[in-house]
Amino acid sequence: MVVKKAAVKKAPVKKPVAKKGSEKQLKTLEKKIGKVPKFFKDLTTKEPEMFNLVMRFEQHIWDDGKISGKTKKLIAIAIAAAMRDQHAVRAQLAGAKNIGVTKGEVEEALRVTFLLSGMPAYVYGKAQLDEVMP
């Protein structure tokens, strides 16, 4: 004897959505850090829960605390130069201009990069600086 199971209808799974105002959040983020990569913009529709978590984390990191946002930006530029990551250096430099970081301040941060990461990292960062902040 074969027993048939009754068909059980499953409720459709609701996909999480990005919080309202994600476009505004992206524009604010772009002002802070420079160009936002396309893959991150795509998170607003493809992985909105991840987008919301990253935005909360980003806000926590970039908010002024014991050190200012400008100081954090200079640290980010120095790290990106030390890693020789062209996209990151250029994005951080673009964001730096938006928050009032001067070319002189960046040059000073890059000198620290030279001291700790060597001449190639300094030269790399300086070349990007001269293109983004002539």
The structural domain count equals 2
Beta-strand content estimate: under 5%
> What share of the residues lie within helices?
55-70%
Give the radius of gyration. 22 Å
- Helix count from the secondary structure assignment: 7
Q: Tally of extended strands?
A: 0
Q: What structural class should be given to the helix and strand makeup?
A: mainly alpha
Return the string of H and E elements. Answer: HHHHHHH
How far do the termini sit from each other? 84 Å
Shape: elongated
CATH topology of the largest domain: AhpD-like
Fourth-level CATH superfamily of the largest domain: AhpD-like
What does this structure look like?
With 134 residues, this protein is mainly α. The chain folds into 2 domains: 17-63, no CATH class; 64-134, AhpD-like (Up-down Bundle). Helix content is 69%, strand content 0%. It has 7 helices and no strands. The chain has helices at residues 22-33, 38-46, 48-62, 69-83, 86-98, 103-117, 119-132. The longest helix has 15 residues, at 48-62. It is elongated. The N and C termini lie far apart (84 Å). The mean pLDDT is 85.
Please describe the structure with a list of short key phrases separated by commas or semicolons.
mainly alpha, AhpD-like, 69% helix
